[in-house]
Design brief:
The structure holds three protein chains of three kinds.
Chain A: H1 7-10, H2 14-21, E1 25-30, E2 37-39, E3 42-44, E4 53-56, H3 57-65, E5 69-72, H4 79-91, H5 103-114, H6 121-144, E6 152-154, H7 160-181
Antiparallel strand pairs in A: 1-4, 1-5, 2-3
Helix pairs in contact in A: 3-5, 4-6, 6-7
Chain B: H1 7-16, H2 19-32, H3 41-63, H4 68-98, H5 100-104, H6 107-110, H7 115-135, E1 168-173, E2 178-181, E3 189-192, E4 197-201, H8 202-210, E5 214-216
Antiparallel strand pairs in B: 1-4, 1-5, 2-3
Helix pairs in contact in B: 2-3, 2-4, 3-4, 4-7
Chain C: H1 4-15, H2 26-52, H3 63-99, H4 106-109, H5 114-134, E1 149-154, E2 159-163, E3 166-170, E4 175-179, H6 180-188, E5 192-194
Antiparallel strand pairs in C: 1-4, 1-5, 2-3
Classes of the chains: A alpha+beta, B mainly alpha, C alpha+beta.
């Protein structure tokens, strides 16, 4: 997204978004035998050669990098499905197509570490980039249509990375309209104490909050 | 107004979720919420126990020459859990730092803190007050030297920073909430559907967050 | 023009890179404190004058009343600026504890006034107490963990190297799957690079 954004307002760093995505379950085909893993994050395995097994993405990538398995690309990550999604994205300017919440992080991790397990990997990647672009553009346009005091925005099917990137802009836009439309508060200070100048404090509470 | 006390569904979803998932949710909610949330001491206790157990298991493994691969994988599981726990605790400390006076002056807010956090909050506040007293307040004329009020003519604590509860947050509900009233007057009603993403004012959904019906993302 | 000096302090804060500090401006700070004293003196004088004229301070609205009001409000504004200055600097100082640690480098120490140095030390202690009470170090693990092993390509002939309980032959252009901690020393010397498959 063009323009500056306060990374603090994004809340999650890109590596934190990726960290959360790494818990998504994917299917692997091991080429080794390994006993069950009873981990804090869950129980997985036992693993047998050529028998598919479901594990979190971080575990799948770790095994793949050590040459112990192949990763089965998720069924949404095919040229056919992604072409459908891209067409649908282009045809509906106000809706987002359903995609896994972490589709961006999942595809990135698979491209980085398991490219050979993805059929037509480069075409798949290019389709995903196009989908991202179309969706970002939709979010930007959507922001422009917020023209008054809005109390709720529905962003059906927006993904994790997209949420994180749009967050600062969205919050700032909504907050700005919210503030400007609310009635000004004029406080009458009730004066007591020895320093009793009959002075009224005008305006909303002052505070030391940094802008 | 929908009822929040749907204990059955809450219990069911709790049983099905690992402590890592719960910790992750607590971490995300804490990151996104403008105010400090309730300390989940049961969750933190359980997580620490599991971490300790795994650390001991890993020591055993290396002593008994267990396969390097298996050790690596458990190590990663441990690292990930530790990161979540540390992040969660650190986030809360930093929130306490940010709103130390506001928190330390409120019984309600203090009750959301663990005992150690309460001690920290009170220390923070004392240290800050001493610093402000020393550098600024002691040099100002009588009547203007309060740390919480601008002057004697202030009718309330008008110099204590507090979080903006009406800030907008991104959220998702796990199950349908249905028609939900966002404001006091009934002019702003939203239909909250499961798994849909909404951007709402935090203040409106505070109760739902506390009840675990809605997740901040 | 009242409160202009106080604004200068705030402008300095604003102009600074977020997360950084400029040198504590004790000159302007002291001037603002002095200004506060002057406002207070003027305020007192005007109130006294009204009292001597047997005017009800609460209800009278003459030029002295408004004069007093201006001094009071100017003092308040100066106070808010001074407090904001110290408070926001304190926020940055606290962040140093998390980002840097319990000991600050000389370049940063130079920018703090005496009270700020003390503040840093005390606040650092409070964090340390919490960490020791909880028995968990919160100053590490600031970013999500990665796989402890990385894929590397050797850039220059290094030869046989003993890593843990086995040795590896690090010849130029060879690829290896090593512990990040083992590889770091070579990477930082430019002898090796991490690479993605």
């Amino acid at each position: 997204m063009a323009g500056q954004s306060d990374p603090h307002l994004s809340l999650f760093s890109p590596s934190e978004v990726e960290f959360v995505a790494e818990d998504e379950i994917v299917e692997i085909v091991p080429n080794i035998r390994m006993e069950a893993l009873n981990m804090i994050c869950g129980d997985f395995g036992p693993f047998f050669p050529q028998i598919p097994s479901k594990v979190p993405l971080w575990l799948a990538v770790a095994l793949k990098r050590r040459g112990k398995c192949t990763i089965r690309a998720p069924e949404w990550m095919t040229v056919e499905r992604l072409t459908q999604v891209l067409d649908a994205e282009r045809e509906s300017p106000r809706e987002f197509q359903p995609l896994p919440f972490h589709y961006i992080e999942i595809s990135k991790l698979l491209f980085d570490h398991a490219r050979d397990d993805i059929t037509d990997a480069y075409l798949v990647r290019s389709l995903i980039e196009d989908i991202r672009d179309v969706r970002f553009h939709k979010v930007e346009t959507g922001l422009e249509t917020i023209s008054g005091r809005t109390h709720a925005v529905k962003l059906k099917n927006l993904s994790a990375m997209e949420v994180n990137i749009v967050r600062p802009f969205m919050v700032r836009t909504l907050q700005a309209f919210y503030k400007h439309d609310s009635p000004q508060m004029i406080q009458q200070a009730d004066n007591t104490g020895s320093r009793s100048t009959p002075v009224t404090d005008r305006g909303p509470r002052r505070d030391l909050r940094r802008r | 107004m929908s009822s929040w006390e749907d204990e059955d569904s809450a219990a069911a979803s709790a049983a099905a979720t690992t402590d890592v998932e719960l910790l992750k949710r607590a971490w995300r909610n804490e990151k996104a919420a403008p105010e400090i949330l309730h300390f989940d001491s049961a969750l933190v206790s359980r997580a620490r126990e599991q971490i300790q157990l795994l650390e001991e298991t890993l020591d055993d493994f290396t002593d008994n020459g267990v396969d390097d691969l298996v050790v690596s994988l458990y190590q990663m599981d441990l690292d990930r859990t530790l990161f979540l726990l540390r992040s969660y605790l650190r986030l809360r400390l930093q929130k306490i730092e940010k709103y130390m006076a506001h928190i330390a002056n409120s019984e309600d807010l203090l009750s959301r803190l663990s005992q150690q956090e309460q001690r920290f909050a009170k220390s923070c506040k004392e240290i800050m007050e001493k610093h402000l007293e020393q550098s600024v307040l002691s040099k100002l004329p009588y009547g203007y030297d309060s740390v919480t009020r601008q002057s004697l003519s202030s009718t309330e604590d008008d110099m204590v920073p507090e979080p903006q509860l009406d800030t907008f947050v991104f959220c998702k509900t796990k199950s349908d909430v249905g028609a939900f009233q966002l404001d006091d007057v009934g002019e702003e009603v939203v239909d909250l559907v499961a798994d849909d993403l909404y951007v709402l004012r935090y203040k409106s959904i505070k109760g739902l967050v506390e009840a675990g019906r809605i997740d901040l993302i | 023009m009242y409160a202009r000096r106080a604004s200068q302090l705030l402008k300095e804060l604003d102009a600074c890179e977020p997360g950084q500090l400029v040198v504590f401006n004790s000159d302007v700070f002291d001037q603002v404190i002095r200004e506060c004293g002057e406002h207070n003196a003027q305020f007192q004088a005007l109130i006294r004058k009204m009292v001597e004229q047997n005017l009800d301070i609460e209800t009278t609205r003459n030029e002295d009343h408004y004069g007093a009001a201006i001094h009071h409000l100017s003092l308040l504004r100066n106070k808010r600026c001074l407090m904001a200055y110290m408070y926001n600097r304190a926020e940055t100082i606290r962040s140093f504890r998390w980002k840097i640690g319990p000991v600050l480098p000389h370049e940063i120490q130079e920018k703090l006034n005496f009270s700020e140095k003390e503040y840093f030390r005390s606040h650092s202690s409070a964090i340390k107490s919490y960490i020791s009470e909880m028995d968990i170090d919160l100053t590490v693990d600031m970013v999500p963990p990665k796989d402890p092993y990385i894929q590397v390509r050797v850039l220059e002939d290094i030869g046989e190297v003993s890593l843990g309980d086995h040795s590896v032959s690090l010849t130029k252009n060879s690829l290896h799957f090593l512990r990040r901690t083992d590889a770091e020393q070579f990477i930082s010397q430019g002898l090796m690079e991490e690479f993605l498959e």
